[in-house]
Amino acid sequence: MEKPSPKIIYENLNDLEKVDVVTSARYRQLAQAVLADPTVNETLRQNIAERLQQANHLLAIKSVDGDESY
């Protein structure tokens, strides 16, 4: 599977609440890889970091039902 561009990864972070848990985890993993890649434009990495932080915050405050975990 080909890795999407950093811009696509950035856009995918908008869809974390719309996709299944596995896809959401994959999007987060790809975002982390971009953050660790010094060849990616610094501004784009900062934008991804901010969007990922917001998404992680929302996940942390999300109500968890029954046997779900986060």
Structure, explained:
The protein has three helices and no strands. The chain is mainly alpha-helical and 70 residues long.
What features would you highlight for this structure?
single chain; 70 residues; mainly alpha; 60% helix
Write the layout of secondary structure elements.
Blueprint: H1 6-12, H2 21-35, H3 42-61
Helix pairs in contact: 1-2, 1-3, 2-3
Q: What integer value in Å does the Rg equal? A: 13 Å
Low-confidence stretches: none
From the N-terminal CA to the C-terminal CA, the straight-line distance is: 26 Å
Shape: globular
Total DSSP helices: 3
Query: How confident is the prediction overall: mean pLDDT?
Result: 89
Amount of beta strand: under 5%
Q: Give the class from helix and strand content and strand pairing.
A: mainly alpha
How many E strands? 0
Largest sheet: none
Helix content: 55-70%
**Order of SSEs:** HHH
Brief sketch in words of this structure:
The chain has about 70 residues and is mostly helical. It is built from three helices and no strands.
